[in-house]
Amino acid sequence: MAEVKALKTNCRRCGDVVVPTSDVRVTAAASGTGLFVFQCPTCRREVWQASDAGTLLRLRAAGAMPVQGPAPLELTELHDGSPISWDDLLEAHEVMRHDCCPQDELTA
């Protein structure tokens, strides 16, 4: 098996990029799924990607280091349902504007 020296992946801003495996960090949840993270060589932003257990193992074998500290594993959660709309956001803002500060009622 050939040694993997680079990972072809995707930056949401720049599109397809190639990142050296030594610049990739990985973390896994107890289920085996997890994330890998890299700094985009084009825009220099940190990019987190969800991944399966097999890919994470191959990245570790190729030289990717583990993530230091807590990782945002909520990115691997299953999100079902439709995304929120602008109307949903405005409605939530309106509710918070009226209900967020109960102490105002005590000082009125």
Structure description:
The protein has helices spanning 53-61, 86-99, 103-107, and strands at residues 6-11, 15-20, 25-28, 34-39, 46-51, 65-66. The protein is α+β, with helices and mostly antiparallel strands and 108 residues long. The protein has a domain at 1-73. It has a 4-stranded mixed sheet. The protein has a two-stranded antiparallel ribbon with strand order 1-2. It is elongated, with a radius of gyration of 20 Å. It starts with 5 loop residues before the first strand and ends with a helix.
Name the beta content range: 25-35%
**Category by helix and strand content:** alpha+beta
**Strand runs, count:** 6
> In what order do the strands lie side by side in the largest sheet?
5-4-3-6
Q: Give the end-to-end Cα distance, rounded to a whole number of Å.
A: 74 Å
- Kindly state the percentage of residues in helix: 25-40%
Count of helical regions: 3
Strand count, sense and barrel status of the largest sheet are: 4 strands, mixed
Rg, Cα atoms, Å: 20 Å
Task: Give the mean pLDDT.
Answer: 83
Succession of helices and strands: EEEEEHEHH
Q: Quick summary of this structure?
A:
With 108 residues, the chain is an alpha+beta fold.
Features:
four-stranded mixed sheet; about 30% strand; alpha+beta; 6 strands; about 110 residues; two-stranded antiparallel sheet
Write the layout of secondary structure elements.
Layout lengths: L5 E6 L3 E6 L4 E4 L5 E6 L6 E6 L1 H9 L3 E2 L19 H14 L3 H5 L1
